[in-house]
Structures are given as C-alpha cells and as structure tokens.
Amino acid sequence: MSETVSVEKNVDSNLDQDVNIRATYLSAHELKLAASLLYQAYHDDPVFLEIFNSDKEDYEQRLRGAIREELNAFWQAKQPMVGLYLGEAMVGVACINSPDETLASDRFWHWRLKMLLNSGYFSTKQMMQKEQTVLAAVPMKVFHFLSFIAVHPLHQQHGFGHYLMAAVNTVLDEHPDSEGVAVYATSGKFKEFFKHVDYQTVKEVTVGNVCGSVMVHYRDKAE
C-alpha cells in the first residue's frame, strides 16, 4: 500500500486545478487532528446523538472518546485511513474497513473494552448492534465499509467530498477481491451525495429511532 492515494480519478470539482490537493494514508501523529475533524463533522449525526444520549451533559466528552478509540482501533488493525490535504491543512478524512478486517472481526475487542470505560455499557451495546444491523443489510460477501467520511465544516461545498471518494475508489482498486464499498447514510444530503458518486440504495435500515439507507458502490465489472 503506497503512502499517497490517488485523487485524480473520477473527480468532479469546481476547484481551481492549480490548487495543491493531495490524499495520503494517515500516520500516527495525524490521528489527533483527524479525530478533531471527525468530531466536528459527526457532532450532530442522528445516530450518535441517540447512541450517546445527547441530552446528557457529558455527550461531547463521550463522543470525543468514542471517535478517538475508533481511530486507534483502525490504526492497530492497519485499516485504511485517508487524509485529504489542501496545501498543509487537513480538510477531509475517510476511514474504511477492508474486506479482511470487517466491523465484525475480533479487532474490536480492545475497542469495545475502551468504549465501556469511556461511554458506558448501553452506548457500547448500541454501537455494536448498529454495526451488526447495517452489515447484515449489505448484499455482498467481500466488501469494504466506509465507516467515517467527513470534510471540515469550513471547506464544505467546494468539491472536496468528490476528492475523498476518488481516494476511496483507489483503496478499492488496491483490493481486487473486494466486490465494492458500502456505507450507511442517515440524512438526505448525504444520500444525494453518495448517489451522485455512483452509490445505490440497497435497503432502508432503522437503528434505534433513526432511519437510514445502506448504500453500495459496486466494483466496475469491466475492470
């Protein structure tokens, strides 16, 4: 796996082509910055609002802890985590589970113990149930799963999401046995975004009181 991730393929952006945009696999010292970006992006996510009880005073603390431990679990399992940079500034992050290390694997035992300490038994159990419910709806046997994708709030609506998805496609290209990439989208704007980058809804899934779409991008059969 090369250190740099291609973002040149299938990019539809209104950004100036002279702008220095690059995607790289995250290193250990970049995890803290990535966690901060993901926290901002997922602070109002309906699934996390419910799972981590947003009405409680320590919601933000528990959400930060959960995202931090999730990234640590990705790092320990050597899963693809892509950072998108505009010059030297990180403007986007994508975290992908590869087919040989899916969400259902034993890599989460350490993460679950950490989650129990940071977020409590009920929140941890809900996270596990959410993963199992979503994965069961994916109509593929060997696939990648897009666990997190986020663009910094100050850099949204500038085409960076398309650059991130081009990088995700590069990760898929590096694993020829994978049938495609799946994602769980809970808001209309994200469903439209994923639809625009060739994802199709395969099933509507309810997690707690939140309804979302399991969407899939299938590998090009011509490849």
Structure description:
The protein is 39% helix and 24% strand. It is built from seven helices and eight strands. It has helices spanning 31-42, 46-51, 59-76, 108-119, 121-136, 160-173, 188-196; strands at 4-5, 21-25, 81-86, 89-97, 144-151, 180-185, 200-207, 210-218. α1 crosses α3 (59-76). The longest helix is centred in the N-terminal third of the chain and has 18 residues, at 59-76. The two termini are 19 Å apart.
Beta-strand share of residues: 15-25%
Sheet with most strands: 8 strands, mixed
Ends apart, CA distance between termini:
19 Å
Low-pLDDT segments, ≥5 res: 7-14, 102-107
Element string (H = helix, E = strand): EEHHHEEHHEHEHEE
The computed structural class is alpha+beta
Strand order of the largest sheet: 1-2-3-4-5-6-8-7
Which value, in Å, is the CA radius of gyration? 17 Å
CATH names the topology as Aminopeptidase
**Any guess at the CATH architecture?**
3-Layer(aba) Sandwich
Broad CATH class: Alpha Beta
Question: How many DSSP-defined strands?
Answer: 8
Number of domains: 1
Please bin the fraction of helical residues.
25-40%
Shape: globular
Q: Number of DSSP helices?
A: 7
Q: Give the rounded overall mean pLDDT.
A: 82
Question: What is the CATH homologous superfamily assignment?
Answer: Gcn5-related N-acetyltransferase (GNAT)
